[in-house]
């Protein structure tokens, strides 16, 4: 029986090895003393190597690059669980800082939070190496960034709402002053004073009404935006 036939009859691991090698094998006798037989053995090895090279080509730099990419991906995959844990911890800290910012907003605190978010994004990009294995973490940090922007906008709307209410109060006071002035004039210089007073009261009332209406509309719009954004933040 030839060695080839013997190999074909084998089972399990050896048979699989034979199939993987596609029947390419060389029998070597390390104890062979005959130089001619040794030379033939060497020639057979060279022949197999030459034929294999013609079929598959050289082991190119592209092969090395592919192998390096696979190795890099494997390293990234191994680090993912620990990286996710660290990133989630950082996100928890950032969320707590956002709550503190909402209670007492300041530009200094806002700047610190933004810097922390940017550092976290840079870390994720560096560790992910373009394999998108940390895509879930990117979304998590982006959500914190959006939350921060919402809270900044909420602060702006709250300030606008407060100013609108202060201005509206000013208009109401102005109208009241006109009414008081009109009353005083009517008492001091009747009956002409009554006419002047009436005009003063009328003008004051009209001015107050127009001013209040415009300010109420602006205040109402700002208040609606503020409340809508606040509900959105509270849902997160």
TrEMBL record:
Question: Could you name the domain of life of the organism this protein comes from?
Answer: Eukaryota
> Keywords for this entry?
Membrane, Nucleotide-binding, Transmembrane, Transmembrane helix
Q: Name one GO molecular function term.
A: GTP binding
Residues folding into a coiled coil are: none
One Pfam family hit: AIG1
What Gene3D superfamilies does this protein's entry cite? P-loop containing nucleotide triphosphate hydrolases (3.40.50.300)
Q: Where are the transmembrane segments?
A: 170-189, 195-216
AIG1-type G domain mapped to chain residues: 3-73
Which family does the record claim for this protein?
Belongs to the TRAFAC class TrmE-Era-EngA-EngB-Septin-like GTPase superfamily. AIG1/Toc34/Toc159-like paraseptin GTPase family. IAN subfamily.
Q: What is this protein called?
A: AIG1-type G domain-containing protein
């Amino acid at each position: 029986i030839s060695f080839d036939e013997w190999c074909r009859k084998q089972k399990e691991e050896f048979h699989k090895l034979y199939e993987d090698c596609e029947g390419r094998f060389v029998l070597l006798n390390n104890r062979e003393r005959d130089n001619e037989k040794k030379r033939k053995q060497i020639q057979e090895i060279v022949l197999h190597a030459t034929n294999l090279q013609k079929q598959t080509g050289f082991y190119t730099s592209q092969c090395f690059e592919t192998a390096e990419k696979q190795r890099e991906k494997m390293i990234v995959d191994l680090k993912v669980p620990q990286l996710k844990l660290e990133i989630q911890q950082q996100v928890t800290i950032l969320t707590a800082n956002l709550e503190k910012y909402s209670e007492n907003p300041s530009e200094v605190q806002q700047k610190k939070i933004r810097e922390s978010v940017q550092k976290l994004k840079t870390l994720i990009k560096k560790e992910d190496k373009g394999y998108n294995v940390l895509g879930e973490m990117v979304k998590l940090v982006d959500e914190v960034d959006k939350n921060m922007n919402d809270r900044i906008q909420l602060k702006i709307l709250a300030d606008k709402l407060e100013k609108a209410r202060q201005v509206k109060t000013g208009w109401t006071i102005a109208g009241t002053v006109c009414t008081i002035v009109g009353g005083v004039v009517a008492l001091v210089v009747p009956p002409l004073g009554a006419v002047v007073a009436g005009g003063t009261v009328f003008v004051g009332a009209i001015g107050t009404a127009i001013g209040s209406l415009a300010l109420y509309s602006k205040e109402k719009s700002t208040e609606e935006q503020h409340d809508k954004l606040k509900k959105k933040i509270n849902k997160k």
